[in-house]
Amino acid sequence: MHGRLKVRTTAEQQEIKAKERAKKMVIYKTAMNLIFSKRKSGELDDEILKITGQVLTENPDISTLWNIRKETILKIKDAMPDLIDSYISKELALTEQCIRVNPKSYNSWFHRSWVLDQGSSVDFHNEFLLCDKCLELDERNFHCWDYRRIIVQKSKTSLENELQFSTDKIQKNFSNYSSWHYRSELLPRIYPSSSDESLLDDQKLAEECNLVQNAIFTDPNDQSAWFYQRWLLFNGDEKFRTSSSHSSLLLTLNNELESCQQLHDLEPDNKWVKLQVCELLRRINGLGNETEILQLVQQLIKVDPLRKGYYTYFGNSTILMNLKKKIKKEFTSLILNTLIVSGSKIVEENQEKRTGQS
Amino acid sequence: MAYDIPSPCDLLVIGTGLTESIVASAASRIGKQVVHVDHRNFYGSNWATFSFNNLQNILGSKSLNKDSTKTVEETQNLNINLNSNTICNIVEKWYLPDEDVQGNIDNQKNLEETINKVPKETLTKSEILRDSRKFNFDLSPKLLYSRGEMVDVLITSGICRYAEFKNVSGIYTVDNVKRTLLSVPCSRADIFNSKDITMIEKRLLMKMLSMCVECETKPEELKEDEMGNFGNFLNAHKIQGKVKKYLIDAVAMATDSTNFHDAVKNIQKFVRSIGRYGNTPFLWTLYGSGELPQCFCRCSAVFGGVYCLNHSTQTIVIGSDGQATGIVSDNQNLKAKFILIEDCLNPVATIKSGISRAILVTNKALTSDQAALITFPSVNSKDPVRILELSASTMVCPQGFYVVHLITHQVTTAVEDLKEAIDTFFTVFESNKNEALNKPQIIWSLHFNINEYNSPAGMLPSNVYSSPGPNSSIDFDDHVIQARNIFKSMFPDEDFLPRVPDPEDIILEGSLEDVLEESKENHKEAQNIHE
Questions:
Q1: CA distances from A262 to A83, A159, A266, A273, B237 (A)
Q2: Which Gene3D superfamilies match (chain B) (predicted)?
């Protein structure tokens, strides 16, 4: 019939594929045999680099081959130190190609960072470009985030630069644990608090609180933002309590509580906001807010029954904590009372003595 | 006739507008013999795109609607309506001096200057016309929803390979009081980053969007709101201020009084389309929307459709059984099983309403986007004006210039309907004007109206179909749906534009004769396209 095209059927396509696969298998086996026999006889030369390279571009996850390449590179570095840089750039090209094949290949990323240590000079600009590209394709590729941290260290890039990078990533899509986490590592190093170097500066803390609140209000079901907020507010809990900035922290917590309660009014069924309100109430005044906390715990069990045990534990631990506080308080007042009573007795006795003497 | 038009054919299409071209390509694709004629000498009918010179020639000769003086006596037949003034109230204005006052400046240098920056002292009409081919003016500019009907059909059919697209990068509405642009946050990231609305407003906006999307799968949830209009619905959900403006003007492409269901459908399409190709839901066709009818025609020609431009048609011949048997075209009888005619040529169609259009060439951008969609909201219950601002990167003008399209429903004439919107954002070009005036200046403007038609049911023979011309909506989807319906009613059991197989899956016949045979046929097809 006119205008009709003959198209391969799926069976034909499968047959073609099976043939191709068999052919690949033969090539793979010959290549592997050749590599192992060459290594046995100590022929760590350009040819072995070529063959391992070809196999690795097809399958970048054969650690043995990467290790043979490392051996070869080290040997060349010993024998011909002048030529090493050109070999390094070939290794970089190969790993880049392998990362393209499998962006989550542990071996490729590791080999790349190993290679960086072997050469005399590295163009870090290229490395950052590679990271940018990979993180654009998959913003949560932790291999690449790790590699980025390695090159930041090696190249001594400014941390402010990296903070900006993390901000850009979050602005593109805030459901990004990797980027929030990166911030939490960078911020205290760039803006340490005056009282404690491991904590965040007050003003920066307020800015970050605002940023994460915007994310939470935009999508209260996204847990990455809640986790970051938890880190911001409750990180170094114990230290804060004893530090001088206690009152400013209390202010921050109260502000956060207010906006969380606003959100709770808008989203009465959201478990994250309920839990956060509980956490905040407990920290601001666990004893005074006990009934409210326990009410919220009951609601949490209702909206999220799968985590019933966790919420019950939360409630019980609050009660226990409050009990401890009460006991401590009563114990203190008991001692105080005893002291006062015994103190006044001494005074009385003294007075009696004095009056007796006079 | 020097060339051979196949007769009888399966489908004869009159007019190369978008709907006609889609049906033609769909019919050719399933192996039907299609003959596609147009009395105009260009593709696209009222959807066409023109360069500066072509536009001026056409305005001059009025060949948009060529007069037909021939009268046909046979009363039983239907005379094709070639002299309908579908495009009317045309007002063209230049705000530049005609000639280069400074005399003989080196042409090359002038051109370079135009490309780099607009040098106000030397900018003249002749200079712009020298770059005529770099301008692409659409009669009916439209956008594609990234997950709309048009994109779907372009992808499944493989016709997308004939055209290129760019994402619209900004969507705006206008503050009612201050008359300034308000950027509409489209995606979740936009809403998160927005500095214009409070956190509570962000929550309400997100909640409304997800509510509208969810009611696609759970329609019962919004039952109680079904009766009212969209404005009341938003009020009932306490949505006010900027968020309400965003939702009505941009996301729902609606007005206060729009029916609730239509608005929610638009919101669903808007939200679905975000993030597929970029941050906004819309795509713009590079070199102008007039590319699309041509893409479909090309697909039709590849599958054996025969094309004849500049070919006038006189009558639809009706047989004794009341069915159309074919048409008389340039004194030739062409027989066809089905006939499709664009409604501005349809003898029984009547004018229903119209579109008010303006095209401006300006020297400065309103926005920093490569392509921006601005909604100028409705005043006094008039329809909103949609404004498309296109930069040189969308291939519609040379560097340093901007093409602005304005589209609204016709109330009086294009000049009056669009005056308020134009005066709000633009001023006319004056070479000595103070630079401090920030409004973009209009270098050239064209106003016109396009009629929309009604084709009453039952007035045409059952094998003659009438297809709609452009409307005032911002996207193509209505027309794709109508084209599919026409196709389905002609060929009920056939697939509408099925996928074209990949080249590596096509089995070429083994023997040399077969290959030669096929290449001969391909050659024939190529000739057909050429014609």
A1: 66, 35, 7, 10, 17
A2: FAD/NAD(P)-binding domain, Guanine Nucleotide Dissociation Inhibitor, domain 1, Guanine Nucleotide Dissociation Inhibitor, domain 2
The model's confidence at residue A247, banded by pLDDT at 50, 70 and 90, is confident
Whether residue B297 is contained in a domain is answered as yes
Q: Is residue B373 part of a domain?
A: yes
CB-based contacts of B472, cutoff 8 Å, min separation 6:
B355, B383, B386, B407, B408, B409, B452
How many residue pairs bridge chain A and chain B with CB atoms within 8 Å of each other? 57
Domain count, chain B: 3
Verify that B337 and B471 share a domain, yes or no: yes
CB contacts of B511 in chain A (<8 Å) are: none
Provide the chain B residues 207-266 that lie in CB contact (below 8 A) with chain A.
207
Q: Examine the fold and report which residue of B226, B250, B280 is the final residue of a domain before the chain moves on.
A: B280
The residue type found at B182 is L
Same domain for B322 and B466: yes
- Write down the pLDDT at residue B103: 41
State whether residue B505 sits within 8 Å of chain A by CB: yes
Q: Which domain holds residue B232?
A: 185-280
If pLDDT is split at 50, 70 and 90, which confidence band does B110 have? very low
CA A270, B252, B171, B285 torsion: positive or negative?
positive
- The answer to whether the Cβ–Cβ distance between B189 and A174 falls below 8 Å is yes
Of A1, A171, A219, nearest to B206 by CB-CB distance is: A219
From the CA atom positions of chain B, what is the Rg in Å? 25
| Same domain flag for B445 and B404 | yes
Q: Are residues B324 and B196 in the same domain?
A: no
Q: Which residues of A touch B191 (CB under 8 A)?
A: 218
Tell me which chain B residues have a C-beta less than 8 angstroms from the C-beta of A4.
31
Q: Minimal Cα–Cα distance from A210 to chain B, Å?
A: 10
Q: What is the chain B residue with the closest CA to A7?
A: B506
Asked whether residue B2 is assigned to any structural domain, the reply reads: no
The torsion defined by the Cα of A17, A23, A29 and A32, in degrees rounded to 10, comes to -90
- The 10s digit of each residue's pLDDT in B177-211 is 888 999 999 999 999 999 999 999 999 999 999 98
| Residues B342 and B469 occupy one common structural domain | yes
Model confidence band, residue B224 (pLDDT cutoffs 50, 70, 90): low
What's the CATH number where B494 sits?
Answer: 3.50.50.60
Instruction: Render pLDDT for A52-85 as a digit per residue (tens, 0 to 9).
Output: 999 999 999 999 999 999 999 999 989 888 888 8
How far B377 CA lies from chain A's nearest CA (Å)? Answer: 26
